[in-house]
Structures are given as C-alpha cells and as structure tokens.
Specification:
The complex is a heterodimer of chains A (433) and B (272).
Chain A lengths: L4 H13 L5 H5 L3 H31 L9 H37 L8 H39 L21 H8 L1 H36 L7 H9 L6 H11 L6 H11 L15 H29 L3 H9 L4 H29 L2 H8 L16 H10 L5 H25 L8
Chain B lengths: L1 H32 L3 H6 L11 H9 L2 H32 L3 H14 L3 H14 L5 H24 L4 H9 L4 H12 L1 H17 L2 H6 L7 H6 L9 H35 L1
Helix pairs in contact in B: 1-13, 3-13, 4-5, 4-7, 4-10, 5-7, 7-10, 8-9, 10-13
C-alpha cells in the first residue's frame, strides 16, 4: 500500500507523541485508550517514586549499614522491581506499537474503533487467548520465574555463612563464585565428584527402570497372559503412599546392623545350596549404597513405564506382527523391528522427563542415607547428587547460598538444554499441525 | 504344542513372582502395623506372635486423622481443580494462537517444568512470607505455579489433535470464544483432563516438602502429620505403619473405582 506524505507524517507524529504514553492515542482520536495508557504511565511513575527508586538502588548497593539494611530483602524487593519494570516496558512497547498501527490504518482510510464499546469488543476478540493464559502465567511468574531470578542474582553475590543479613551485608562479587567452583581445588574436586556421580546415577537408575518397565510390559502384554489388568493395578499401588515413607521404609530395611535385608533376607538365602553371602554394609560402604539406591529406584520407577508402554503396545496393529511372522521373522526380530521403534516413537519425550526427573531426584538420595556415607568435601556426601548437595548447601549449619545458586544455574542449563534438544527432535514440540 | 503351553505357564509364574516381590513392602507395612514396637525390631518379615490393634487407635489420635484428612482433601481438590481449569485454558490459548509470542510463552512454560524445586524454595518462601501468604491459599497458588507447566505441556499435545474446523464451525453458528472453549473444546479434552488430574492428585496428596515449608500445625496435611512419627532419635515405626495403613485406605478405595481411568489416562497422555 502506497502512503502519501501526509500519512507518513501522521504515523511519525503518533509514534513520537506516544513517548509519553497515551498522547499518541489522543492524536489518533481514541481518547479512551489514551486515558488507559496515561493512567498506567502515572501509576508507574508514582510506584517508581515511592518504592521503585529505593528498591533499584537497594538492588544496586545491597545495603550500606550493617545491622540496619537487610541485604536479602533488598535483593528480593529489587528483583520484584525488575519484574515490574519489565512488565511496564512491555506495556510501553505495546503503547507505541498501537499508536503507530492505528495511525497507519487511519492514513490508508480504514475506519478504526473510536467508541469505548467497540474497543472493548476488539480487545475481547483478539486479546482473549492471552487473557485465558493469564492466571496460569501469573502463578508461574510468582512461584517459579521470580525465585529463579533471585537465585540467578544470588549466584553473583557473596551470600554465605560469613555474610548473613541483617548482621552483615551481602555484596556483589561478579563471577567469583563460578571461578571458585571451577578453579579452587577444594570446590572443583567436590563439584566434579558430585557431578560425575549424578550423571552415573541418572543413567543407571533411569535406564534400569525403563528396561524393567519395557520388559515386563512386553512380557505381560502377550495375548495369552491372563489377568493383564490385575498386574496393572498391582504395579500402580505404591502411588498411594507418600514417596518419603516408601524410601524411609527401604532405608530402614537396608540398615547395616538391624535392617531386615541383613538380619533376615540374607540368612534366609544362605539356606539355599551354593549361596553364602556375608552381611553387606549397605549404609557405610559408598559402593553398596549406590547399588542399593539404583536398585530401589529401578523398583520404584518401573511401574509408570510399564503402564505407559502397555498403552503403546495395545495401539500397535496386530497384522504387523502377523505379516512379520509370515515373512519368517522370529520373536526377537519382531521385537527389534516393530515393537521397539513404536515405543520410542511415542515415549521418547516421557523417557527424557524420567531422566531429568532422576537427575533431580532429591527424595531418593536424601531420604535413603542423607547423601552419605562419608564426604567428598564442601559438605557433599559420597552419594549426593547435585540437587541434594544444593539442599545441604542452603539448609545446613554453614549455608553457602551463592555456591548453591551457581550450581543451580549450571544444572538448569544442562537439564533444560538437553530436554529441549530432544523435545525439538520429537514431535512433542511441533507448533504447526 | 505341549512345550508352548509349558512356556506360557513359566511366564505366568514369573509375572506372579514379580508382582509378589512388588507387593512385599505392602505386606511388611500391614504385618508390622499390628506388631508391638519391640517385635518390629526383632522380626520384620514374620507374622506377629500377638496381634495388637492399639497401634491403629493410637495412630488415629496422633495423626488427628479426621482433621488432617480434611486439610489434605481441601488442598488437593482446590489445587487440582484450579490446575485443570487454568492449564486447559492456557494451553488452548497458546495452541490456537500461532504467533511468535505464544510460542515463546509455551517455551517458558516447558522450561519451567524442568526447574528443580529445591533450588528455588528459599526465595519462594521468603517472597510468600513477605506478602503474608504462607497459608493454604498461598500453597494452592504455588501448586498452580508448579503444576501448570507439565499440565499445559500435556494439554498442548492433545489439543493439536482437536481439529480447528470445530472452532470455525462453532464461530459460524454464533458461539463466542468463551462458549467454544467451555461447551466444545473442554469436553473433548476429558481424557487428558483425567490424566492431568491423576498425575497432580498423586503429587499433591503425597507431597511433603512444600507443605512443610508453608503450612502451620493447624492446617497440616496427612504427610506432615506422618513425619512426626519419625523423630530425630525415636522412629516410631509401629505407629507410622499403622497410620500409613489408615491413610492409604481412602486412596485405595478411590483407586479401585478409578483404576480404569488411571491406566487409560497414563497411556493416553502419551499416545495421543
């Protein structure tokens, strides 16, 4: 569409005027919209003057007088102010965009809504979908985005047990915490030990539960097995029990001296011919603790996979197998060429969530043996994974919130990066139909 | 033929053995809930020599069962109801509106699903404490925040198989967007709503860490009360196991009525 000079002028003027929100809309003869934008602008100015400026400077200095300024609250208020600022900036951009758009429409002669009712109708029609998403989005901003923002900021401070507000001040230290984790040998060694066990744990435990789950599903879903539904019901029963109780019961059963495994199950097995096992130090030998938690997680985690894969198996058409049989494929070949691809095509995103879930499986590690036995330095036990280490760093007697925050950032980048890569490759993330 | 039959029998037996092994913790729970405190330490696996049902009445009183059951029920019903309604709405909005902005919002929702709770819990609690929201309302709000990402992810997936032509047909018939969502789309989403509901009920009903940070003694849920049996020095397994047996009875009742939906729900969530 060709615009004459007059129109160009008009658009420019509307955009320029909306540097003060609302004026552009007045120029476009939409007084109602103008009043709304102007009102938002004034509310923001007043908010800035009464609370905002102080909060922003507080975020910058993190307090000047020890004992009086509470650095943590200043950090939180400052982050809140950052959020408010971000929301205002988005509205500001909408304001300029709106003024420009309406001016463009007017200059090419399209009638625009002038009256209050027409504008409300228009907002309802086009903005409705964003309105629908608003409640969930608001809850998520306050429950997740905001705490994440505070955590990210904390990673760049020296907030640890030497600097506990309000008695002491917390200061910005830039990337020092990250440098410490990578270059200070005491931190680096514990970080590397925890990280490598986290990776081993994630792969071993999750793969185990997927293998058991797929295996039982494939076996128990053979046509001739009776009572398939019965197995499904039984395998789901543990969901009725809070996880912390299941894990603590296991923890009790694996106790070195009084646990049922060592005092009753192993002696019972020793009655069998050719079997002679000594009591195993499940809680004091890191190797056996690791074996125990991987086994328990396999046990706890496979039913979900079982139910999931059962559903998928029932959706594979029977004639595929018939055809393969006629072509002379044996059971293993049929499994490899028909069953496996079907399972992976559908369940890969869920499998990935299982891996990320175990990467952050706090309850299993912490409740079984509190990350112990022993220590790999910096407060971490020999079976601690990153998330339980973070928990110890923030809730222990000598908390180190900055290190915990820095580790959190690294974990999140790893987990989100890998998951999104896989989601993108599978159809779970397709935006178009 | 004979050989095949024998193989089948072996498979059945293996399956049954697995199921039995799987059930053993439940056996241990029930058997030990009727033992005395002393006998639990001497013999975990065996059948009790004398049966005591005192544990149950003691646990019932210690748990303040009726009160904490109602607390759990309120939290779970409101949280899950709100999660289902708001995530379905949000997913519908984001799935039908194919702009860059809604793509980005969806991306943030999915990324939030992967943030570990333990790493954000301290700022979360201090923020909610500052605005005096460390109560049941605040807890329900937090559950909405933490639960909506996975729920939106699931709804989003199953919405892509609901034809847009349905929306268009309804628009021609004069329905507005609000009516389209509630009368047409939401009923179609019922199977995935069941999945979302079940996953969230399991999580919220059994959750310990978040309520322990938010709720006070008065509004404690069943898992919170249960934790008091596990003191620092004295673990009262006889009471804990009896309490657990009481606490899972309502769950098992619900479970047997809903099991068809649960199993179908879990697999539908993935297959669709």
């Amino acid at each position: 569409m060709e615009l004459n000079n007059n129109g160009q002028e008009r658009i420019k003027k509307a955009a320029l005027l909306s540097i003060i929100p609302g004026l552009g809309q007045f120029y476009n003869k939409q007084p109602f919209k103008g009043v709304v934008f102007l009102a938002i602008f004034f509310v923001f100015i007043i908010q800035m003057a009464t609370f905002g400026i102080e909060a922003m400077t507080g975020l910058f200095t993190l307090g000047v007088t020890p004992g009086q300024d509470h650095s943590l609250f200043m950090l939180i208020e400052g982050s809140l102010q950052l959020l408010i600022l971000a929301i205002f900036l988005i509205l500001y951009a909408i304001n300029i965009y709106d003024a420009k758009r309406v001016a463009t429409l007017a200059s090419i002669g399209i009638k625009t809504n002038k009256s209050f009712i027409d504008i409300m109708k228009n907002v309802y029609q086009n903005g409705f979908s964003y309105l629908l998403a608003l409640p969930a989005y608001a809850a998520m901003i306050f429950a997740i985005v905001f705490p994440v923002l505070v955590t990210v900021l904390t990673a760049f401070t020296n907030y640890d047990f030497y600097h506990i507000p309000p008695a002491n001040l917390v200061d910005w230290v830039g990337f020092d915490t990250f440098k410490d984790i990578f270059f200070l040998s005491s931190y680096r060694d514990s970080f590397m030990a925890v990280l490598s066990w986290t990776v081993i744990w994630t792969f071993a435990a999750t793969t185990l539960q997927i293998v058991i789950g797929v295996f039982t599903a494939v076996v128990l879903n053979q046509k001739f097995i009776k009572g398939r539904r019965f197995f499904g019901i039984i395998f789901l029963l543990p969901w009725a029990v809070p996880a912390f109780i299941t894990i603590m019961s296991f923890s009790n059963m694996f106790n070195d001296s009084i646990g049922a495994i060592n005092t009753q199950v192993i002696p019972l097995l020793n009655h069998l011919p050719f079997i002679d096992i000594d009591a195993i130090s499940w809680k004091t030998d890191p190797f056996w603790t690791k074996i125990a938690i991987i086994m328990i997680q396999g046990w706890l985690g496979f039913p979900f996979i079982y139910v999931l894969v059962s559903g998928i198996l029932q959706s594979i058409p029977e004639d595929l197998y018939e055809a393969a049989k006629i072509d002379g494929a044996n059971a293993i070949q049929r499994f490899r060429t028909i069953t496996m691809p079907a399972i992976f095509a559908i369940a890969t995103p869920i499998f990935v969530t299982q891996y990320t879930g175990n990467f952050n499986n706090f309850s299993m590690i912490y409740l079984f043996n509190e990350g112990g036995p022993g220590s790999v330095g910096a407060g971490a036990g020999s079976t601690d994974i990153l998330i339980s280490w973070i928990y110890k760093l923030t809730t222990g007697t000598s908390p180190q919130y900055n290190v915990a925050a820095a580790v959190t950032i690294m974990i999140s980048i790893i987990v989100i990066g890998i998951s999104l890569l896989v989601f993108k490759k599978t159809k779970a993330f397709e935006m178009e139909d | 033929m004979k050989k095949k039959k024998r193989n089948l029998l072996i498979l059945e037996i293996v399956g049954l053995l697995l199921a039995l092994l799987w059930l053993s913790p439940f056996y241990i729970m029930i058997v030990n809930s009727i033992k005395t405190k002393k006998e639990i330490f001497s013999d975990v696996i065996g059948i009790p020599e004398e049966w005591t049902f005192e544990n149950f009445s003691n646990a019932f009183i210690d748990l303040d069962f009726i009160h904490s059951f109602i607390n759990s029920l309120i939290i779970t019903i409101f949280s899950v109801g709100i999660i289902i309604i708001f995530s379905a709405m949000a997913a519908y909005a984001l799935q039908r509106n194919k702009s860059k902005l809604s793509g980005m919002i969806f991306f943030i929702f999915v990324a939030a699903m992967l943030i570990p709770f333990q790493s954000v819990m301290i700022p979360l609690v201090s923020l909610f404490g500052k605005v005096e929201m460390l109560n049941q309302v605040g807890l329900i709000f937090m559950y909405l925040g933490f639960g909506s990402s996975l729920s939106i992810f699931l709804y989003h997936g199953s919405l892509s198989s609901v034809a847009v032509s349905l929306d268009e047909a309804a628009t021609i018939d004069g329905a507005n967007k609000w009516q389209i969502f509630w009368r047409i789309i939401f009923p179609i989403l019922k199977p995935i709503s069941v999945t979302v509901g079940i996953l969230n009920v399991i999580w919220i009903w059994n959750d310990y860490l978040l309520p322990s940070l938010v709720l006070n003694e008065q509004s404690a849920t069943i898992p919170l009360k249960m934790f008091f049996f596990f003191g620092q020095y004295t673990k009262q397994w006889h009471l804990a196991l009896a309490g657990l047996t009481i606490a899972i009875i309502p769950v098992i009742i619900v479970y047997f009525f809903a099991q068809k939906h649960i199993i179908k729900g879990v697999s539908d969530g993935a297959v669709k």
